[in-house]
Amino acid sequence: MDNSQNAGYQAGQAKGQAQEKGNQMMDKASNAAQSCKETMQETGEQAKAKAQGAANAVKNATGTKN
């Protein structure tokens, strides 16, 4: 393999490594986004449950039905 072939090979290797690194970073970003989405859904469900509990407490305290 002459110098130009070796340089081309090394450039191809570097490009492949850069693409793989980019793919890994995208995977990490996707996982972080999914985790954030799940956390926000859980937070929303907890807030909804607390609001429902508070509404029920008011109904019980005032003797209101439904």
UniProtKB/TrEMBL annotation:
Biased composition (Low complexity): 1-24, 49-66
Name by which UniProt lists this protein: Stress-induced protein KIN2-like
Top-rank lineage group of the source organism: Eukaryota
InterPro entries according to UniProt: LEA1/2/D7/KIN2
Residues covered by region (Disordered): 1-66
Biased composition (Polar residues): 31-44
